[in-house]
What we know:
This protein is an all-alpha fold. The longest helix is centred in the last third of the chain and has 27 residues. α3 crosses α8 and α8 crosses α9. About 10% of the residues have low confidence. The chain is built from nine helices and no strands.
Amino acid sequence: xxxxxxxxxxxxxxxxxxxxxxKNRQVAEDIVQDVFIRAYExxxxxxGESSYQTYLYRMTVNRCHDHFRSWSFxxxxxxxKNFNYKRxxxxxxxxxxxxxxxxxxxxxxxxxxLKYREVIVFHYYKEYSINQIANILAxxxxxxxxxxxxxxAKLKEKxxxxxxxxxx
Length: 168
């Protein structure tokens, strides 16, 4: 597969995936760019044990985890500005979450701890099976099931609070 095809086929999906982790468009773009460069350089190392998409997702997840372990991330001074993940007009995220309920749900998903956020995104947005998610995240299927159950409970609680706030 040539580089242009790889970017065309997987760029948008990897960008959304990275964004759900880092909540910063510029950092997500850097991560995806790095993933594509590494994937292109190591294309001959791909063993075909999974689909190429799963391979790229795994690389993106690993690169996001690397970002969180990096010196620059750990020493960042957090402020409300850093956590402003409102979408710009015409961005992928705005198009995905155009309705009010979807905006609230999207914000609540992004506010979940990473281990819950990633399983929700893979299962409900990417429609991956429990086994596929376990493979991508390198965790057991039971761990995926537990995280999904806990994530749904957290979202249900948060959403009922939001709906209660609007109706009250």
